[in-house]
Design brief:
With 446 residues, the chain is mainly alpha-helical. Helix content is 69%, strand content 3%.
Amino acid sequence: MNKDKQYASIFELDGIPKFSQALPLAIQHLVAMIVGCVTPAIIVAGAAGIEGQDRVILIQASLVFSALSTLLQLFTIGFKNIRLGAKLPVIMGVSFAYVPSMQAIAGDFGIAAILGAQIIGGIVAFLVGLFIDQIRKFFPPLIAGTVVFTIGLSLYPTAINYMAGGASSPAYGSWENWTVALFTLAVVTALNHFTKGFMKLASILIGMVAGYIMAICFGMVDFSSIGTSAWFQLPALMHFGLEFEVSSCVALGILFAINAIQAIGDFSATTSGGMDRQPTNAELKGAITGYGICNIISALFGCLPTATYSQNVGIVTTTRVINRCVLGLTAVFMLLAGLVPKFSALLTTIPQCVLGGATVTVFASIAMTGIKLVMTENMNFRNTSIVGLAAALGMGVCQASASLAAFPAWVTTIFGKSPVVVSTIVAVALNIILPKVKEIPLNDAK
């Protein structure tokens, strides 16, 4: 009898594969996402002025609840006629898409307001999931691409400020910060373009390690927080509290609706690239309702908004390894890392210039993903007007937010702090209002 027959293939959705096959593939997924998973928490903590153990708790919650959200999507939970989770091979992590809005909310109202707004956003996402068939038509690739493009553009100032050392740092803009940042960026870029396989996949992680070592040589790293952190700690319920500030809830509620629709693209890419089919309506409904519920629960423990990770979708479509246990093992590693505060504390020692040098490539990739989505549509005068006006008004109002000073403060919070909200509203409205261009077949045009 062949002993291997008791194991499932890594190319099958169900069943348990050999651990020796699953382990390297799980680590591959882990290195592709772990930096992106914890960086939003570090950025938002900086915007809120949070230091020390509170910053460690934010990172810990990011890892723990990204892991639990991933496990829900992989293995699902059913309640009567509602299934939470897609039962598809995806990885969930804290999303950069919310960072611009979260920075603004953190600066004005604090972390509690973000978490309160996240609960409202989770409810919005849950409702979008229930009525996905009716809502999906308002977010074609043109609109989704415009939103993603704007998200990428809006993150560029964050990357540059981090490369310079962080706007609040006394050494902001120093040659040491720029040297470390550019060295980190150079390593990431070189690995992306001149290597293959694991080295290319782990380019951001390796670049950060290289930049981190250089930063140590410059005396930029303080290890004191690691010594004061525990070896094991469960996430704390309501550690940061909750605040339901209306304008923050509206801003994040809109973003959750957008990202719930955007998740369709990641799930579709996963099934088409790895399984040669499109996701079913039941899978999409389970995916988005699960996404909403996970964000409601995780907000209670201080985890910032999570979403599907496109880089891991890329791994699935490239390798065609769809076994859920492989990705489940990745989630287990994330969970274990999150339960060890010393590991989270180590991540807080990464200098901002290193983060900036590594993540500027991520933000550029987000913007280019948006452009690729937009370009799947015919870029006639109507469609270029929608994309151009949405991006122009979104970025313009945000960069000149003082132009809203005569309005109530809530108007500035919703529309003047993050370009994504304005861009989304403008893009959706123009797509409904502007007349569609009738395409003329080539034979008729002669």
